[in-house]
Amino acid sequence: MLLSQTHNPAVMCPIALRETVWKKRDIIRVSVVIIGTLIGWGLIRLLYPSFDYYPPESLINNLERSWFVTAGVRKLAMMVYAMVALVVMAMLFKVVQQRWPGRGGFKGMAFGASFGVVWSFGFLGGWAFLGTTLRAELLNSVVDLVPLAIAGWLIGLAVGRDVPQSGQRIPKPWLAVLLVAFGFVAVHVLGATFLDDLVGSGSSLLFVPTNLPQITLLTGLGLWVGGMYIVLRQGLPCESTWARVAFFAFGVFGFSWTWFHLFLVIIDLAGLLHMGLLVGLMGAVGVFSGAIAYEWLAACVTRVNRR
């Protein structure tokens, strides 16, 4: 059945609940990884001006700067932002890796890199929608992707476990990729277009597509997220299909996509928190819709094949 009949959280998500309990040694190991990553990441971003992130001029020239900027603590805020990203990434990974087939270190690197690629699409959105240069956004992508992948690898070595291949095949994985991509693009385009005239200043942050490069970029992100879903599907917790899909859409992807957009509207700009939350929510709802559609169709195909 597509939706489990039980409403007991301990039954629906036994692995998720069990994996939220961290052993002391795991906390120490992950803390060391996060501190080391922050030092390396911070040295690159904060000490080398050419590698620092500069907000689009189209925004900073027309919108109010944040308190972090005016108070001179922007770099400190950036470090806290990166720390939160790494902590949540580690928590999500520890849950997913329990049933995800593969070696711990490789799974961690793939998980961290998947976050990094989502952020890379976000940076490229600055070029496609906000008028920044492609070179600058490719550099931003690399500067964040590499630390996230390395941190994921080290976290995988620290708390990941090797899980043998189960032999379970995913029915029509290409269909999942297409449906997740379609759901993401459709909900984003419809939502952003509807909200464009309602939100006032900062509406460009909604990423309303009006040309082929912008549509292509959103489609590319949707396809990437569909691939993430296929790769992580076996590791998603909970017995209920709805809960598993929600964990991926609103937890794994939803956090990475929303947290990326919150950087600009919290650390660099003032009064636009709702914009980052709206973009993140639209993306998560779109991915959830596409993944649920795939699970429903896959269940139908399975029932037909059993007859």
Quaternary state of the chains: single chain
Percent helix among the residues? Answer: over 70%
Residue stretches low in confidence (pLDDT < 50, at least 5 long) are 1-12
Specify Rg, calculated over alpha carbons.
20 Å
The computed structural class is: mainly alpha
**Terminal CA distance:** 16 Å
Global mean pLDDT: 90
Number of domains: 1
* Largest sheet geometry: none
Order of helices and strands: HHHHHHHHHHHH
β-strand amount: under 5%
The rough form would be described as globular
Number of E-state strands: 0
**Helix count?**
12
Detailed description of the structure:
- The protein has twelve helices and no strands.
- By secondary structure, it is mostly helical.
- It has one domain.
- 42% of the residues are buried.
Question: What's the SSE blueprint?
Answer:
Elements: H1 9-12, H2 14-19, H3 24-47, H4 57-60, H5 67-70, H6 74-96, H7 104-130, H8 134-159, H9 173-195, H10 212-232, H11 241-268, H12 273-306
Helix pairs in contact: 3-6, 3-8, 6-8, 6-11, 7-8, 7-10, 7-11, 9-10, 9-12, 11-12
Condensed summary:
This protein is an all-alpha fold and 307 residues long.
Key terms for this structure?
single chain, 0% strand, 73% helix, 307 residues, 12 helices, mainly alpha, disordered N terminus
